[in-house]
Specification:
There is one protein chain. This protein is of the alpha/beta class. The protein has a domain of 292 residues: Alkaline Phosphatase, subunit A, CATH 3.40.720.10. It is built from 14 helices and 15 strands. Strands 1, 2, 3, 4, 5, 6, 7, 8, 9, 10 and 11 form an 11-stranded mixed β-sheet that branches. Strands 12-13-14-15 form a 4-stranded antiparallel β-sheet, covered by helices on one side. α5 packs parallel to α10.
Length: 531
């Protein structure tokens, strides 16, 4: 492995020069007369692991409509969150900047600064009609949108049933299942748009976020399915340090009996109105409650039998987790199919760039975990498929290292608008235009920094890089521990080789690359004596 003198060129690190004015570069590029700007629909789910999408090789579920986007467009194999947490990831996507620059580092320390530059503001200034519909999770009201309707309640997570929204500042409640309702609102916006303008919609689903409550039509759909277990479900972390051992996101110990596993009967729920599961249960129509009671009765009886112990109990919990999680994914895929059919009927499908991604990945039992936060592959890696037949060859696949800070410059570039110099991501358009081939001057590493500790799930603060072949991680704050993985030999990141003398050369090069990247991205907190 070698570290060239340049860290990035078209890869993005060289694009950190501060603009003299936030909007100084947000102007339309010269376009041929009559050339129409594309519509943009940015579909983002919450916590959707690549391993729960069939075009990524999942053996858990079929997602034919997401697969269609990949079949008729491009699939990115190596797209990564730069901070695998919902609010921070969304802030990075909006701004094209890392958390330490956009100011929203975690979900606990305040609100997103909506006054700063974002790609929707730039698109709107350049003739787009813009909308934000669904999960926002940034505390402040959205800016830069002609229309916005965001989930409220449950700490801005929203509810699966009879969800509450804030619509352009007005609180409303909608009947129905949240994944369907959000799609209804997207279609309604397109129906009532200004036809002389291109549109950009941020179409953000709540699903499949915890606590994984399926649509009525999907309740119990996997009750008789036994899902394959990851072979490291019982990882003992013997080759890792304190971070893996002290987390609180295990299937064995962290999943709650009521909220997560739904092991309360109707009578138990009605007798304890303070339980948070009661509050969401009461949002269901009576017929849905009846189906819910029937579907979960067998699960509750099996648990209360007392026969489940030890590893058998962990395996059982894994199955219940997967049954609910994957059932919520079915509604996501259904609604993507519904939206694509609607666009096709209206004659707008091929005029519209359709992105599909998640705000980060998610653990589906790997290492014994659920949730995200860690830099490990299942959490850091994001699905990304893009359909736009005017520019993207159908069936393209790319292994180009990309990050969620690249999305904003990509939207602008594809709309024919200059990218502000202070955006830290880079446009993926050169990759899209070349059937996924990696440009010769592309980045050789993606960067990651997680800040929320102490916090929910007790994942320690850490930063690191991922190259094509290696991952380097530094856990800091209350610890000072390094990890390094050979992704070619150990793709599941089971054996930490940081102290293995056989990798001395690669370790030294990776540390130098990490420091260079941190310096150029202006994340120099590692120089603080407290780290």
């Amino acid at each position: 492995m070698s570290v060239p003198n340049k860290i990035l060129n078209q890869s993005g690190i060289s694009l950190l020069v501060a603009a003299t004015s936030l909007f100084s570069c947000s102007t339309k590029k010269d376009k041929q007369e009559g050339e129409k700007q594309p519509n943009i629909i940015f579909i983002m789910t919450d916590d959707h692991a690549s391993n729960a999408i069939s075009c990524y090789g999942s053996n858990l579920i079929q997602t034919p409509h997401i697969d269609r986007l990949a079949k008729e467009g491009i699939k990115f194999e190596n797209t990564y969150a730069v901070n695998a947490l919902s609010g921070p990831s969304r802030a990075c996507i909006l701004t094209g900047k890392f958390s330490h620059v956009n100011g929203f580092k975690d979900n606990q320390s305040g609100a997103f600064d909506g006054d700063q530059q974002t790609f929707p503001k730039i698109l709107r200034e350049n003739g787009y009609q813009t909308a934000m519909i669904g999960k926002w999770h940034l505390i402040t009201e959205p800016q830069g949108f002609d229309y916005w309707c965001i989930l409220s309640g449950q700490h801005e997570q929203g509810d699966y049933y009879t969800p509450d929204f804030i619509e352009n500042g007005r609180h409303i409640t909608e009947e129905g299942y949240v994944t369907d309702v959000i799609t209804d609102k997207v279609i309604n916006f397109i129906d009532n748009r200004e036809n002389d303008k291109p549109f950009m919609i941020m179409y953000h689903q709540k699903a499949p976020h915890r606590n994984w409550m399926p649509a009525p039509r999907h309740l119990g759909v996997f009750n008789d399915t036994s899902f394959p277990e990851p072979d490291n479900l019982f990882d003992d972390y013997s080759h890792r340090g304190r971070a893996a051992k002290e987390q609180d996101m295990s299937i064995a110990h962290t999943l709650t009996l009521d909220w997560d596993l739904k092991l309360l009967t109707r009578q138990e729920l009605l007798n304890d109105t303070t339980n948070r599961l009661y509050s969401v249960y009461k949002r269901m129509p009576e017929k849905v409650q009846q189906k819910w009671d029937s579907v979960y009765a067998g699960r509750i009886a099996e648990y209360k039998s007392g026969r489940l112990q030890g590893e058998e109990l962990v395996r059982w919990k894994y199955q219940q987790y997967m049954r609910d999680y994957l059932a919520t994914v079915l509604a996501v895929d259904d609604n993507i199919g519904r939206l694509l059919a609607y666009l096709e009927e209206k004659g707008e499908l091929d005029n519209t760039i359709v992105f599909y991604t998640s705000d980060q990945g998610f653990f589906l039992g790997e290492h014994g975990w659920f949730d995200k936060r860690f830099i490990y592959e299942e959490s850091q890696r994001m699905p990304l498929v893009i359909r736009y037949p005017k520019s993207i060859k159908a069936g393209s696949v790319s292994r180009a290292l990309s990050m969620n800070v690249d999305f904003a410059p990509t939207f602008l570039d594809m709309a024919g608008i200059d990218i502000p110099e202070d955006m830290q991501g880079v446009s993926l358009k050169p990759v899209l235009a070349n059937a996924g081939e990696i440009p010769p001057d592309w980045r050789e590493a993606v960067y990651y920094h997680f800040y929320e500790y102490p916090g929910e799930h007790s994942v320690k603060r850490h930063y690191g890089i991922r190259t094509a072949d290696f991952k380097l991680i530094h856990f800091y704050n209350d610890v000072d521990e390094w990890e390094m993985y050979d992704l070619k030999k150990d793709p599941k990141e089971m054996v930490n080789i940081f102290d293995n003398p056989e990798y001395n050369k690669e370790r030294g090069e990776l540390i130098q690359l990490l420091r260079n990247i941190q310096s150029v991205y202006k994340d120099e907190s590692f120089k603080d004596n407290n780290i």
